[in-house]
Design a protein that fits this description.
Helices cover 7% and strands 47% of the residues. The chain is mainly beta.
Length: 232
């Protein structure tokens, strides 16, 4: 009597294992929950750290002056199979004092970013990243140019005129991401119930990942520690 049901159970177990390896298993029961937590950035002196991005060129001290290190962190769910329609964002990275502000931005796939020039001289924003390769060309003070990002991935930005300028854009194919508040707290809402991998990403060290469960109608708490090497 059980022999006809055994193959079905085996298939279901195999599919669940594949979904777990992919990083997310939405619950069959439906419903959404909330992920909240805290990111702590710790300083490491003189210790080289692994990174999944190519190094910025000749970064000067004024690149990060006055900006909390937490604003260079993105918290997001990894390998989520999002079935809904993504809402494009319209964001801005300003060029001011020979820096990109903000230095790190997270957007959904299909979003557009404006690059206004707030300096009294020309800039030329470009990227050679696999997720987006473009060159906005030279443009004058007070002008702005825009770029749309149709593919998910990491986009590294530079300026042809000022070699010390660099920034990062994380383009994600789901809406479950955020940048922490100044005190390190964060919240990601309306997450379908299921099993996930949550990531804290920093441009100088890459990812720190943690497995979590999200319950329908519940709130899941997680703390993320990122050891960031002190800039020279």
């Amino acid at each position: 009597m059980s022999s006809t049901k055994t193959p079905e159970r085996c298939v279901r177990a195999l599919l669940a294992g594949i979904a777990l390896a992919a990083g997310a298993i939405p619950s069959a029961q439906g419903g959404t929950g909330t992920i909240s937590g805290h990111v702590q950035v710790t300083r490491v002196h003189g210790t080289p750290l692994p990174s999944n991005v190519y190094a910025p060129r000749a970064v000067q001290p004024h690149d990060t002056a006055g900006v909390p290190e937490l604003k260079n962190v993105v918290v997001y769910l990894k390998n989520v199979k999002y079935a809904g329609a993504l809402t494009p964002m319209h964001a801005e990275i300003r060029q001011e004092h020979e820096t990109f502000q903000p230095r790190v931005l997270a957007i959904t796939r299909g979003s557009t970013v404006d690059f206004p020039n707030a300096d009294p001289f020309f800039h030329d924003v470009f990227s050679l990243s696999s997720a987006a390769s473009f060159d906005l060309g030279h443009y004058a003070p007070g002008k702005s140019r825009a770029q749309t990002f149709p593919r998910a991935g990491l986009v590294k930005l530079y300026c042809h005129i000022h070699s010390q300028m660099s920034a990062s854009i994380l383009v994600l194919d789901h809406p479950y991401f955020t940048i922490p508040n100044d005190d390190g707290t964060f919240t990601i809402s309306n997450v379908p119930a299921g099993h996930y991998t949550i990531v804290g990403w920093h441009e100088r060290i890459g990812e720190r990942a943690t497995a979590i469960d999200v319950q329908a109608g519940g709130s899941t708490s997680v703390n993320i520690a990122l050891p960031v090497e002190e800039a020279p």
